[in-house]
Amino acid sequence: MKKVACLAVLLSLCACAHLDEQWFFVRDASVQQLSKHQQLSNALATNKVRSLGYDDKEFVVTGHRLTGGDDVVLAFRSFSSGSLIADTASFVKLTALIPQSRFAPGSEIKIPGADGAMAYYSSSSSNFPGAGGCFGYASQGTMKVDGASGQSVTVSIDLHFNLASPLGYSDQCGEKKIQGKYIVQQLPLRELSPWQGTAGKTLYEETIAP
Amino acid sequence: MPRTKTALRILVVTWVCYSGLAFARFIQADPVGIVPEPTVPLPSTPSPVQKLNHLYVYVSNNPLRYTDPFGLTQQDIDNMLELVNVTQPDLNVPSSVSTYEGGVSGGGITWPFPGRPVSISDIYLKQLSCDQLNQLFNVLTHESIHRTRPFSDMIRRPINHPDIYEDAGRRTREVSNFIRNYCKCPSS
After folding, report:
1. What ranges in A100-209 are assigned the alpha helix state H?
2. Taking burial as the number of CB atoms within 10 A of a residue's CB, which of A41, A73, B100, B170 is the most buried?
């Protein structure tokens, strides 16, 4: 038994974490709880709300679920497995909603002001979703489609977020910038996994990359 | 939930919460184990106050990082641990937990050492709202479930164990209204 314990400790101290990152976009899509996103975004922008509360903290996960719709969803999913010790995995998710007509090479989508474009960001422990981490909406910035090639597009992103803590830790979150140029693959909605944006059998299928 | 069980939970939560708020913190070790009278009548079982009386501990022994002028933050951890202990008698609840720095995730770890000690995020050393107390209860329950399961279970599937998350969530939901109603925790 001691040997097993020592081996576990040794393994956990190794750099065993792996990072799994993916950008993709989905046409004819939307987010599942669009009206909730709109209400929450307004409430955060006006400081009427600064947390999700214990009963709703899992919106840091469920807020990234996709459904069929009239827009393009641009998404980023990042999973870090942490060490081999239990409960140290974490995720970052970004889900941006862009009007389909604006998602074309040369087009620049501004936030705020682009016909309802929205970008929702959250980070959290995968094992305790919403217990810590941050969430929020882009308050300003741009997403520009630089070019398209086959099933992929190149996008330049410069988004500024004002993030809040799901359970209201006032000093945990704040300003966040996401900037960069990315090659983004198109995925069909029906082929998305729970990790990418469909409802899982358990919430943890959505917080832990397969 | 049977009425007697509900009544017992109300009594237990009231007892643990009020005793925590009433007893604050000691500036030196209590040499004879004298404790103040609780503000609510206690059942005739052994007092949890003696377990709550963690002599000398101040903001998890990290005074450079935290202050605890009202003696309530480490006390929150101790009280919720006691609440798990009392309300979840089928679990192997640790007698104490340590905290680790930089734990903004709000999670916890059951270490694969003999005795399976538990560390939780130092986020819980802050003064906690009702929502945050509920999450603290959830994390402590989660780690206690780990300790209750065979050692091999933790090693075999360290990253994803949804049954444990869901079990801890269910147990927390059963107690969460009591925490909101009977602990004097501030709203978020």
Report:
1. 204-207
2. A73
